[in-house]
Amino acid sequence: MEAINNLISQGAVQDVLFWVFAALTLICAILVIANPFSRSPVTSAMFLVLTIISMAGLFVLLHAFFLAAVQILVYAGAVMVLFLFVIMLLDLKEEQRRKIKLFGLVTGLIAVGGIVSVFLKALASAGNGTDAPKLEGETYALGKLLFTQYTLPFEIVSVLLLVAMVGVILLSKRKLE
Amino acid sequence: MNASLISLEISVIGLGLVLMLADLFMPAERRKFLGYAAIAALGVLLLASFAGCGSCSLTGTAFHGAFVNDGLSLFFKRLFIIAAILVLFVAVEFSDRLTAISEYYSLIVFALAGMLFAASANDFAMLFVSIELITITFYVLVSFQRNKLASLEAGVKYLILGALSSAFMIFGIALIWGTTGQLNFTELAAVASQFADSKIFLLGVLLVLVGLGFKIAAFPFQIWAPDVYQGAPTPTTAFLAIGSKAAGFVLLMRFLFSAIPSITHSHALSTMLIIVSGITILYGNLCALPQRNLKRLLAYSSISHAGYLLLGVAALNANGQAAILYYLAGYLFTVLAAFLVIALVLRQLETEDVSGLAGLNQRSPLLAATLTIAMVSLAGIPPLAGFFGKFLLLKSVVEAAQTTGNPGYYCLLFTALVGVVISLYYYFNVVRAIYWSKEPKDVSPIEMSGAAKLTAWLCIAGIFALGLFPNAVLNFALLAVGGLK
Amino acid sequence: MSILTQIAGWPLLAALALVVVPRNYRVVIRAIAVLATFISTVLAVKMFVGYGCAVPDAEGFRFVQQIPWVESLGISYHVGVDGLNVGLVLMGAIVAFAAALCSWEIKTREKEFYILLLVMSGGILGAFASLDLFFFYFLHELALVPTFIMIGVWGRGERKNYATFQITLYLSIGALIALLGLIALYVQSGANTFDIPKLVEHLKSNPLETNAQNFIFPLLLFGFGILVSLWPFHSWAPLGYGVAPSPTAMLHAGVLKKFGLYGLIRVALPLLPEAAQTWANVIAWLCVGNILYVGWVAMRQKDLNLLIGNSSVAHMGFIFLGIASLNLIGITGAVLIMVAHGFLAALTFALNGYIYQQTGTLKMSELGGLCRKLPFIGTALLMAAMAGCGLPGFANFVGEATVFFGAWTVFPTVTVIALWGALVIGGVYMTRAIRNALHGPLPEKWSALVDASSAWRKLPYALLLLCLLVFGFVPKLLTEKINPDAGKIVTVVAAAAPAEHALVQVDVPTARAQSSEIEQ
Amino acid sequence: MQVGLHHYLTVSILLFSLGLLGVIMRRNLLVIYMSLELMLNAANLALVSFSRFNDKLDGQVLVFFIITVAAAEVAVGLALIVALYRKRQSAHVEDLTSMKL
Amino acid sequence: MKHELFPWLILFLPLISVAVITLFTLRSKMVSSLISIGAVSASFILTVLFIAANGFHPEVPGDVLNWNWLSIDQLNVDFGLKVDALSLMMTLVVTGVGGLIHIYSYGYMHDDRSLSRFFAKLSLFTFSMLGIVLANNFLMMFIFWELVGISSYLLIGFWFEKPSAGDAAKKAFITNRLGDFGFLFGILMVWGLLHSLNFSELQSGVAAGTVTLGASATIAGLLIFCGAMGKSAQFPLHVWLPDAMEGPTPVSALIHAATMVAAGVYMLCRSLFLFDHGALQVIAYIGGFTSLLAALMAMQQNDIKRIIAYSTLSQLGYMVMVVGLNGPTPAMFHLTTHAFFKALLFLSAGSVIMGMHHEQDIWQMGNLRKKMPITFWTFLIGSLALCGVPPFSGFYSKDSILAQAIDQHNYLLFGIATFVAALTTFYTFRLFFVVFLGKEKSKAAAHAHESPFVMTGPLMVLAVFSVIGGFIGITNNFESQFAHEHESLTMMQQLLEPFHKPIPMCLGLGAVAIGFFAAMSIYKDAETDPLPARLGGLSKAMANRFYFDELYEATVIRLHDFIAAVFDWIDRWILEGGCIGLIRGGTDFTGRALRLMQTGNLQTYAFLFVLGVAVLLYFVL
Known about the structure:
Largest sheet of chain B: 2 strands, antiparallel
Order of helices and strands of chain B: HHEEHHHHHHHHHHHHHHHHHH
Helix content of chain B: over 70%
Strand content of chain B: under 5%
Largest sheet of chain E: 2 strands, antiparallel
Number of strands of chain E: 2
Radius of gyration of chain B: 21 Å
Distance between the termini of chain B: 26 Å
Shape of chain E: globular
Radius of gyration of chain E: 30 Å
Distance between the termini of chain E: 95 Å
Number of helices of chain B: 20
Strand order of the largest sheet of chain B: 1-2
Strand order of the largest sheet of chain E: 1-2
Helix content of chain E: over 70%
Number of strands of chain B: 2
Oligomer: heteropentamer
Shape of chain B: globular
Structural class of chain B: mainly alpha
Order of helices and strands of chain E: HHEEHHHHHHHHHHHHHHHHHHHHHHHHH
Structural class of chain E: mainly alpha
């Protein structure tokens, strides 16, 4: 028990958990975009849910508990349900395996690879990045910040949601007058 | 906290809500006239802003520095309001092709609110949310003609690419904030120079520029513009061409010259700006050359104009920034004049081919003159607004060339000239189509409502005024960019 | 209001007035256009005659008017004339009047045509009268754009589109390069003013660095050069004039084209004197291309308009040569030719237009013997052709001879080549043209041609011929005015002469003496 | 090895690039849209980890905004896709090429 | 000085008549011709009055009524007249002979519908010619020089509907222009070195040694001579003169015999002070060669006017030669007498042509002595004068030329000149025999008729001067101009002047005799020309003018045309087609190619977007 506590305090468990969640996130993400077994959007959506949940795990590891909750509630809960609804609504058949254009694939990989390599190089050049984590995710502090310094963006987002709402109604109503 | 600074924005949002509510109480056939109410309200706001009454034209910062009201934001806010007014005029003319017209008006007003916030945004959170407000509103506005496949297709294209650019931008913001720990532009400016060597920071800057480049349709992020311009309802296209672009520019200028001026003036970034500007000009003009679809032509021309505007950014001096402002003001009237004509003329036509303009000078001399003046101004010919704007932009680049001695500026100047020459060709093709087509199919006169006539005259007056009496606007623009570095 | 504002303003006002005239009131439209240009002409003559009596301002300009326009950039509406442009304004007004008179040959969309013609005339006159770099350019552009439209719409022949394309391309590029040069000049001077006299004063005391001068000068040289069809950027000119409706060709070839040359003299030389010294050689040798090369090309032409167009390009060479000589005689000569060639080009294109209007062709193989059926037009064309190959009695000769004398001291070789071009090559192609078009037997099909019969029809040609003769007989009318002001420019240029340009320096004391004499 | 900022960022970058790959490789609009969500999430992850290691909360506020905006965007986007599907009976990008050149 | 306005009136009266005719009286042939004739006659009378009042040496030798025409820096050009013996004599010739030709023209051209135009041009020519004569500086002279060129062009091409006339006019103009090129070149050179154009200033300067042409003197001289070469049709620019006979005959008489072609000689005499020994040598040899060449060509021509034209060439060669031998007086003397007799010959030929109803081939004529007695006599007088038979005027002037050659010890040129004298007699009498004697060779000849008095009158006047021109004091005036010391000779002394130098006289007369007898033996009764059979190829070469036209055609003209073609090609295909076409095509192509990016496919768009980001990142980082 003490050993476990030790491990926890030294962060070993977190480290292990990090690796687990990170691997889970990435693997699920890969399965979202390229599932060798199914090309159905439903599968993609399901794996996206998994990705999001594992990310929530990462958030927890980063002590962002509130955001982890939001992540699961909003993303995995609301957004993904929306996705699934739409998929079902559209009654999408499994996507036909159209011929993958090799040229497109290769150039796409090169482009993305290029971007990733630039990102990673930039990251590598930025020192070792082994500072100890400091911040404790306090929901209270977060809320205070949100409603003091960031009131205005917050309000704008509310307008944005209104607009989105109107937009969705306009776009999906069967008949408009 | 100086919350009264945002009274203009609040009024605009309120207006949007009122419009939406009024819809409920208006009979369907009268709803189109809600547009005039919106115009009137915006007109009042504009006057208030000019008259300085209330707190519409106060300067200062609010919300912990996230919101700033200065000359620059004031200039752009007025520009946006004028744009919205004119777009609303066009929208009223276009109303017979739109269902749910009052929602359309209110969405325009909400987009305007987003733009107003963008004009005042002074931190990344504001930048992000205001851009998103504009963008998401535009998703809806673009795909508003639900019964038209092109409109929906344009909407989807704008949606996917817009989201993609948002993703890049937000990642960039994350990196910038991660390295510097600052979200506020003013505070960032104080520390930015320390991070000049940080690759992550530079990466973040570039990714933010990707997002902004998308908004202004600069190469290589211009790819969406033609399809979206073509598919969207004409008033939306007009608002995209001026409002969205101008919002992109005000944010770009804030970001480059207020948040990270020390980085902007570095060699790598300034060279990039030069190259992007040059290629954008060339790309837009070259692609427009064989184009026959009028809206698509204007899309390409809009890309090239983004390039010209970037000249002022690339020049990295106050005159260049002022020139951008001036140019946008001229561009506002010009583009709206063009889209007004398109909205009115191509009403019956399925295609938007240039040939649809045949015989326009007989069908409606005023519209013919309006479009001609718009094209001539876009081509940059005196005595219209476009000429003086281009003159100012070129002048600023020459200044930059002579103060820095960077040979890239000379190449850029040359490129800009080549672009202008190419553009003459397709603009005059349009003019030729108006006056000198072989046999016009349709010679029925075009009825213009009084409001449409008023709009046309307003645009013409604006184009001429900016070309002939540039003094006041130019001084204002110079004053407005005083805070930028 | 200065008389210059009126001269340029009447056509523009008339253009505005025409907008509201219904298009089927053809006589009214035509009358307004003719009347407006006529008023301009009368005013211009009045100004020319009253030039000597008018009181010059501190910088030596007369009939000055200045209204600030954009203070922050130092742009103001500033018009005025001195010896260099007084002749050009007069010439421009007369040619505009003649062009308006000749426009009867336009039968379609007359309203638009006259509006464009008037805008063009007003723009040209304004550009020449302008003493502010910005307006100078601005008004030129204002005149240039109608040219494109007129050629594109009312042009003739199957190469119309191509020619319009080419002329638009070339002239816009030229104008833009020149604009770049002007902006660079403005920026580099640091005087924060577009006012030419002020810039001259400013740069006299703080001349630009040699590097800057040597960078800006070519911009102006080639920008303006393209506008003037400097070899090898000339190919637009014959082609464009070949298809242009004759009033447009008259105004463009006659007047608007001189803008570039005037710009070089007015702006490039006094403001960039050192670079002018350096680049004079280049100009001199490029003008060989104009005179010799284009002259030879003209010899091959089968179409009368193309031939005249090429000869017009060749004539530009003499003006460039005069400018390149950088001495009082040469520059005076250059200005003289500018005025003379304005009348001449207008005359030839007007006559070609008449013939084309009558015959529907200008292919010399199809013409012939026209002197018989068209004695007036034929004689006028013959005289114009002769003026074109430098016959004394016409103003062109005076200018060309003066240029030769001026250039001889500086560029003897080029002068000899130019002599050859003027006397021999010019003679060859002009006599060929006369032989093929006017002499020889009259083909059957032209037996129904009608000569210009009424006084109205004859007036433009007679007027232009008269001007050519007057200035040919009494060149002093112009030279007396040009001399002092050209002297100022020469003095400025010579003062900046590097030591190795000894040849140019020879003229310095005399030029100074001349100008001081006149000042007394 | 202690797990630090770089590890999180690496994950974030990889996630971002996977999203990117999805956007340019997949042809189903919905899947493309999901890939975009992946990219946004990558940004969120970066922000949260920066927030943790820089000892500043602003990043988390930003994440909050991003999630909200993303939700709104998804709503509008899906509505749009649905509308399009009704019109075109397809959610496939290759069927959306009525406007080109 | 008295009558100082006279020279101005003399000069401008013809111009005024041009203006009046073109502006007002084109419709009326009668009025126009009267105005023109009146103007030139008035000029003549004024000249005579002026001379009567002031003598040949006005007290002020300088320039009359100088009006500053152009003054820029060191370029000062006055419109001023130089009135001295040289110019006054020349004015007399121009207005006198010219007046007679004007009158003659009225008869000759009576039926032409463009008579007014003809007289206008004739007056214009007179004005220009007087301008050359009276000009007091080089540029003025050049101006009138050019004007003479253009009026000659107009007159040669008077019957412009005839293609040959148009071509001849063109040729004359361009050939003259070649000479003018050299002339102006030379003027520039002189001005560049001496900074003056005024004859008096230059002459006094050169004489005083204050200014000098230095090393460039020969070149400058020769360049100025180029002008004379063109106007006076000296080899190698002689080709235009024979073709110029396409013009009406009075024109040939006026321009191509009496006045215009003499302008070159006059100009040489006027600017003689500029020439150094080297230049003069060249001039002399060119003159000599021209006279020989032209005489040879004349031998085998069959066109009556062309024969006279070649003889003109030959005589001009004489004059130029003797100027080159530093003998301006003999040159001007010959010029004057030549003006009389050559105008006489041309006008007589014109009378013949008119009598023959515009037939010009001498082998279609014959036995005209009976039909046209007056013309016969005047032509005979002209021929004798031309050949230099004493006491006709030509004898004296030709003799003075031969004597000058001897004086200068240039025996080669003397030999040539003597030989040419023989040739001259030969071809002159060939012409005379074939045309006026023998049998009628065609019906036209049988029906020929004498011309009206308006034509024969001037013939008779000219005939008188051709006879007496040698001893009425013409040389005196020129002597006084050119020689520093001279004595005025009485008429008797003048009559006997040649006998002071018997060698040239005897040799000259011998040559004439040989030529005459040769012509008589061959052509007395010839029906066709027997000479081609005897001379073979040489005859053909002579008849074809030694193929100079063909040579020029093959070289100069071809070369110009070739260069023009090349440049035209470059202009059309490289500058216009190549550069512009390439730019245009390239732009258009690039536009179309770039547009292909817009596939409409969202996936491509996304890919391009990402690619753009990648490139951007790589570029900056």
